[in-house]
Amino acid sequence: MGLLLKGGRLLNLETGSLESLDVLVEGSTISRIANSIEADGHEVVGLDGLTILPGFIDMHVHLRQPGFEGKETIATGTRAAARGGYTKVACMPNTRPVLDTPEQMKYVYEVTAREGSCTVLPYGAITKGELGEELTDIAGLRSAGAVAITDDGVGVQSSSLMREAMRIAASLDVPVVIHSEDEDLAKDGCMNEGVVSQRLGLPGIPGLAESAMIARDILLAQETGAHLHVCHISDAWSVELVRWAKSMGLRVTTEVTPHHLLLTESIIDATDGEDANMKVNPPLRAERDRLACLNGLLDGTIDMIATDHAPHTPEEKQRPFRTAPFGFVGLEFAFSVLYTELVEKSGSLPLHELVKKFATNPAEVFNLSGGRVVEGGIADITVVDLEAERVVAPDEFYSKGRNTPFAGQKAKGWTVLTVNEGRITYQA
Ligand SMILES: NC(=O)N[C@@H](CC(=O)O)C(=O)O
Ligand SMILES: [Zn+2]
Ligand SMILES: [Zn+2]
Questions:
Q1: Which residue is closest in CA terms to ligand 1's atom 2?
Q2: How is the cofactor bound (predicted)?
């Protein structure tokens, strides 16, 4: 017996048209897509006019397990992911202990098999303990299933160490994923350096702290032949550098978050720097940076959307702006807010281009299954209601995190059904 999705509209990723098609899932595979498929003993889910998309893939998520289970666990984070339409998430290694050994990779896969509501692809750290001093066993991490390597949360400050990491990664065909931040330039900053940080008297993090490191790592990628993926791009010059690297034919890819596409430091200004739910790293920047990210997304410089889902406890986020931890949650509304603002309201991006940034491109860039709803493909499917309007409601989150500046915002395009490898993982 299969799972029959009946009466929905399947998004054609090439033309952007919505086609009335039934989709039959058998086992973990999409076995048939046709105008009308007989119920024939299958479990039928009626989708009357709802929109069928490939399951979303988020290459930047903090699941916090092991070590910070008060913020999130693999169970709660993947439930949140499924609720947001995600079928795969890649989890960051800045846990305690850090995910820096093959055993840690195995741990993530084992816990996910028991408790997970989506596929979890662990990142292995570049340096032991993310301390920036000694390289991990990159080959061992890869064999144990690391999707790529990164020290997200901190930048690798040593250029010679990064050069060596890229040499090894290139020889193993492992992508190097960078949190680009020059610690010396970023120092004790807690928000974007500029007119707002000056007015509020808060220490700033200049865009240069990001772009300078991206420039270094693009040159290292050029020299070593490594695939470089730039995390959470946020600064206008950073986008320009990635655009240039691509024009030179280098293997450089990047992601942007919903918050860097839709928000600026003006929301910190408006709340006088008193709400740490607006504190994130890289920080919300100026309008020209936001527009550069948006243009980069539109012209293909930016390959994909990633949430950088970074849950923290309410207590931590109630601390003063200077000392509260950086980070926003995002899994449960990323598609909705971006669909609403970029597709529905401004029309800057057609739906199928947005969906490529959420599913097709991450699959292609990281060589993963999914990203398309096709016969014979893996049954990773997300069904959304493009009409229903709701507000982003943190008290309803499956995530343990509540920290988002999007709280209370109205949006359309909510997930009603998520299927991961043929299994229903969320149903509204
Ligand atoms: N993005 C953040 O503001 N915080 C992340 C770390 C990171 O992604 O660099 C976290 O782990 O909390
Ligand atoms: Zn980061
Ligand atoms: Zn992160």
A1: 327
A2: Binds 2 Zn(2+) ions per subunit.
Separation CA 191–CA 322 (nearest Å) = 9
Cα–ligand 2 centroid distance for 46 (angstroms): 40
* Domains parsed from the chain with CATH numbers: 3-51+378-427 (2.30.40.10), 55-365 (3.20.20.140)
Listed in order, strand segments (DSSP E) in 84-189 are: 86-91, 119-122, 149-150, 176-178
Taking phi first (over 0 means left), then psi (-120 to 50 degrees means alpha), and beta for anything else, what does residue 339 get? Answer: alpha
C-alpha separations of 42 from 33, 34, 224, 427 in Å: 14, 15, 52, 18
Q: Which of 316, 336, 275 is nearest to 401 (CA)?
A: 316
Note whether 166 and 139 are within 8 A (CB).
no
168: buried, middle or exposed (CB in 10 Å: 19+, 13-18, 0-12)?
buried
When the pLDDT of each residue in the chain is averaged and rounded to a whole number, the result is 98
How far is residue 413's CA from residue 384's CA, in Å, rounded to a whole number? 6
> In degrees, to the nearest 5, what angle opens at C-alpha 143 toward C-alphas 137 and 144?
90
What pLDDT does 342 receive?
98
Q: Is the CB of 153 under 6 A from ligand 1?
A: yes
ipTM of the complex: 0.99
Q: Is 48 a catalytic residue?
A: no
**Tally of residues, the chain:** 428
- Could you give the CA distance from residue 256 to residue 296 in angstroms, rounded to a whole number? 9
Within its chain, how far is the Cα of 200 from the centroid?
Answer: 30
Q: Is 345 exposed, middle or buried (0-12, 13-18, 19+ CB in 10 A)?
A: exposed
In the 8-state DSSP scheme, what is residue 309? Answer: B
Alpha helices in 131-277 (DSSP H): 138-143, 159-172, 183-186, 195-200, 208-224, 236-247, 258-262, 266-270
What's the confidence (pLDDT) of residue 174? 98
Q: Are the beta carbons of 150 and 228 closer than 8 angstroms?
A: no
Question: DSSP string covering 157-172, please?
Answer: --HHHHHHHHHHHHHH
Tell me, in angstroms, the distance from the centre of ligand 3 to residue 231's CA.
8
Query: pTM, whole model, 2 decimals?
Result: 0.98
- Nearest by Cα to 323 from 290, 289, 365, 279: 279
Catalytic residue among 182, 289, 308, 385: 308
3-state secondary structure 191-216: EECCHHHHHHCCCEECCHHHHHHHHH
pLDDT band at 49 (very low <50, low <70, confident <90, very high): confident
Eight-class DSSP state of 284: P
- pLDDT tens profile 182-196: 999 999 999 999 999
Q: What's the angle, vertex CA 118, arms to CA 1 and CA 355, rounded to 5? A: 95
